[in-house]
Design a protein that fits this description.
about 210 residues; alpha+beta; Peptide Methionine Sulfoxide Reductase, Chain A; 7 helices
Length: about 210
Amino acid sequence: MKKSIFFVLLATAVIACNAQTKKSTAGIQKVNLYPQKGKAIAAFAEGCFWCSEKIFESVAGIDSVVSGYAGGNKANPTYEEVSSETTGHAESVLIYYNPQKISYKELLRVFFTSHDPTTKDRQGPDVGSSYRSVIFYRDAAEKARAEFAIRELSKSGQFRKPIVTELLPLKEFWRAEEYHQDFAKKNPNQGYIKAVSNPRYESFKKAYKSKNK
C-alpha cells in the first residue's frame, strides 16, 4: 500500500505544472495596465497559467493573453520564487479583449466554466497558494459584477462545494518568463500539456456553449 501511494505521488509530481521548470528569467517585466483605446484588460488566476492561457485564447473577442504573476508582494518574481509559495503571487493570466465583442460578464463565465472554484489553493494536480482561484478587479464595477456572479452561481447549485474564489484589486501584473508564453502551443507533446492542459481544455470546450475562435 505504501509503495502504491508513493508511485501515485511520484506520478502527480511529474505532471505538476511546477515540476516542469527552466532557469531562464528572461522576459520578466511589469506590465502597463492601461489598454489601448477601444480595448480592455482583465486578470484571473485559476491554476496553472499554461492551461488558462490556452483556454482564454480560444474565446472569440479576446485578442491576446499574457501569462504572469499577480496578487503578491515581491517585485520581479521568478517562476521558482512563485512556486516556492513565499511571494504571495498566483499564476495568472492578463487578458486583452475587445469589449464590443465580449463583455466582462462573459469573461467571468469563461473563468468559472474553465476551472473548479471550490478547491482552495489547488487546481488538479497543482497544489499551493500560487494555484488559487482569484478574480483581480480593476474598479468597483468589476468587483460588483464578480460578487454578483459568485452569488448567482452559489444559489444555482452548479457547484456542490462553496466557491472559494478570492476577489483582489489588480495592483500589479508581472509578465512571466518568455518560455511560459504560449507554452501549450509551443510544446504540444510536453507531459503536463498532454496529461492536464489538453484534457482541461477539451472539458472547457464541451461545457462552454458560446462562440470560440
